[in-house]
From TrEMBL:
Its main location: cytoplasm. The gene is hutI. This is Imidazolonepropionase. N-formimidoyl-L-glutamate binds at Y147, N321, G323. It is found in: Cytoplasm. Catalyzes the hydrolytic cleavage of the carbon-nitrogen bond in imidazolone-5-propanoate to yield N-formimidoyl-L-glutamate. It is the third step in the universal histidine degradation pathway. Keywords: Cytoplasm, Histidine metabolism, Hydrolase, Iron, Metal-binding, Zinc. It catalyses: 4-imidazolone-5-propanoate + H2O = N-formimidoyl-L-glutamate. InterPro entries: Amidohydro-rel (IPR006680), HutI (IPR005920), Metal-dep_hydrolase_composite (IPR011059), Metal_Hydrolase (IPR032466). Fe(3+) binds at H75, H77, H244, D319. Its cofactor is Zn(2+); Fe(3+). Its EC number is 3.5.2.7. It comes from the Bacteria.
Amino acid sequence: MAAERWDGLLVGAQLATLDAIEGYGLVDAGALGWRDGRIVYAGAVEALPAPPDVLAHEVIDAGGDLVTPGLVDCHTHLVFAGSRAAEFEQRLMGASYEAIARAGGGIVSTVRATRAADAQALLAESLPRARALVADGATTLEVKSGYGLDFENERKMLRTARELGETLGIPVRTTFLGAHALPPEFAGDPDGYIDAVCDWLPRLHAEGLVDAVDAFCERIGFTAAQTRRVFEAARALGLPVKLHADQLSDGEGAALVAEFGGLSADHVEHTSEAGVRAMAAAGTVAVLLPGAFHVLRETTLPPIDAFREHGVPMAVATDCNPGTSPLLSLRQAMQLACTHFRLTPAEALLGATVHAARALGLDDRGALRPGLRADFVRWRVREPAALCYWLGGDLAASVHCSGRRVA
Ligand code: NIG
Ligand code: FE
């Protein structure tokens, strides 16, 4: 019997299982049990098959606190060196993000700093950002490359991302974003650069560094035709794709990534009704990034009602990056999604868990259900809406990944 005991059991929790057709899937006076990193019980304390201390080695009384699935940040660029605070000041003086990028600043200035940092320095600069996200409830992070823009530096970024996960004890999913911006050595030759990106991809993949492939399809990024070539290279390797789509203009990016059966179209402020329909048909998730919307003082809202109407799942992520979204809390991104995009708090929480996991192609997390990973957060609040209500603050009492406490 002793060997059968669960590793841990939390009792007296307000459980938001998110395992319901809609809403929070609340269980009042709930219990959550886990063994070998997986959930074995998520339900009422009353319905437990035996007394808690008989069932589990460790019993924790949550004292009525809210417990949710661990948050999944499905879109970050958190591995980088340097800062773009000066660019923030320029924008407040009237310069636009596009104008700064065209003048050689923006993404390319972070490329200069990231290339100059060695692997150790890059890890040291990136670790506090990842740690902050975990401290506010994230138990899975996605990290993109895209500030190296040559083979060695893209590899350095992806390795750093993997190392972050090992250091913090959480899964990090890596996305190759070689097609993020045109590096200076390819000035005037974007197609030549795309050839290089397509050449690096199989080599990086062979080293186990790539879980998905992304591109920046935009006037200041790459054309639809260039993006298509990157996607074809991904498809040849069986790698899933996602896209920075329709952020600053409608470049028909959402329809393009849907055509490739993509995991997600991200940003999507300027996505048309046709793009939404294509996403719905392909099962492509809309990843909303309200941090970038907020920081760039954008005014065009993503087509939220159309996503709802067509049943396109909406995820919410930080887009943590030095240019458009220096945001270090996914809970804060949920808050911004509610205030700017009028998501309901339930939609925002589903967006940072269930739908975010789907945007990464992961079906073993995002809800509290037996069989899923024991990734969960105990919060110092009782109502789920309170997670989206507070701006800032220190609400996570403890963060558990695969049953182990990580913050
Ligand atoms: O998601 N849009 C392109 N990529 C990032 C910004 C990167 C940067 O400015 O450094 C984004 O907003
Ligand atoms: Fe991004």
